Amino acid sequence: MPQRIGYHVRVFLFTLGHNIELVGIEYPEGNDEVKKVVQLHRKIAPELIAIIEDRYNILRHVSYSQPIGRRALAQNLGVGERMVRAQVDFLKNAGFLEFSPLGMTITSDGERLLQEAEGYISELHGLALLEADLAKQLGVKQVIIIPGDSNADVTVKRELGRAVVNVLGQYMTANMVIAVSGGSTMAQVAEVVGLQAPLTTVVPARGGLGEQVEYQANIIAAVIAAKLGGAYRLLHIPDGMSEEAVEVILANDANASHVIEMIQHADILIHGIGRAHDMAIRRSCDAPIADEIVKRGAVGEALGYYCTLEGQCVYVTSSVGLRLDDLASIGLVIAVAGGQKKAEAIVAVTSAGGQDVLVIDEAAANAIKAII
C-alpha cells in the first residue's frame, strides 16, 4: 500500500498589510502535525484560511494553464479580476509567479510550494478522515480524494490524473504491462504522465468505444506509452461485435489473440467509471436497450459491465479484453472518477469488487458518503 510521505509546508499569509511567513514546518508521516496547524489557524485567524485557499487555487490554475493572463485566470476561477490582481501581485513578490508578455507562469519555488501545501489543504477540508472512512465502507484498500469538483473546475480533473500517475509511480517496475480504459478522465491521466519506464508495455483494457478518437482506449494507451518511453500494443476490435464475429477475428489474427492474452494478465489496470445510461449511449446501444439497462437497476459501468448500487452485474457489453472476473488476477487495479453525479456509479462499481485504489474528487466523496 502506498503511504503518504511527510510534508514540508510553507504557508504564506497576508493580513493587515504585513507578510507573515510560516517556514519549515516539518510534518512527519501522518497528519497529527498538519491537524495542529489547521486547528491553530481555525482558532486564531480563521479569516486567513480563505486567503490560503485562494492563493493555492491561483497557483494550481496557473500551473495547469500557463502562460495565462489575469483576465483569463479570473474567469477560470469565477472571481473578480481585482481579487486576482491583488493575490497574483503578492505571489509574484514572494517569488512564486513570473510575469511576461504571454502571461503568468509558475516558478520552481511556486511548484514546490504547491506540492508542499497539498497536505494542508487536504486536512483543511477534512479529507484524510473521509478517505479512511470511505475505504472501509467501500471495501477498497485506499481512497485518494482531490479537493474540489472536477465538473466545475477542469484543474481538479487534471489533479485526478496526477494522483493516478503518482500511485502508478509507486508501483511501477521494469517489464510491466499496464492496461488502460478509455474516457475523458483517462485522457487527463495520459496528459499528465511524467514518468519514464522504457521497458513498460501499455495496452487497452477493452475494445474501442464509438466516441471521439482522443477518448478511446487505444489512443490513451499509445499516448501513455509515448510519455513513458515504452511500447504499446493496440486492439482493433470494437465493442458491440457478436461473439461469432470476434471468434472469426481471433481465429485469423494471431496478433489480436496475443494482445488479449497480455491484457488479461496485465500487472496494473487503470480504468474510469461511468454512469450506466450515459455509457450505454456512448457504447452505441439502442435507446430501448439503454432504458432496459437502467430499468434493471444499473447505475454504474466499468469495463463494459453495468452494475446496480449493490454491485450486482445486470448487463454486459459484448467485447474483448478485461472482464470484472479478471480483476482478481491483476496486480493492482486503480479506478478514477470525479463529480457528484458519478457517486452512485462509483459505489456500484466498487461494490462489485476488485478495486485496490480509488481516486475521486471531493464532490464525489461527499455524495458517496451521503449514499452509504
Automatic annotation (TrEMBL):
Gene name of the record: cggR_1
Cross-referenced Gene3D superfamilies: 3.40.50.1360, Winged helix-like DNA-binding domain superfamily/Winged helix DNA-binding domain
Keyword Transcription regulation annotated: yes
Gene Ontology MF terms in the entry: carbohydrate binding; DNA binding
Annotated Sugar-binding domain residues: 124-368
Domain CggR N-terminal DNA binding: 51-119
Keyword Transcription (UniProt): yes
Protein family: Belongs to the SorC transcriptional regulatory family.
Protein keywords: DNA-binding, Transcription, Transcription regulation
Name used for this protein in its record: Central glycolytic genes regulator
A Pfam family recorded for this sequence: CggR_N
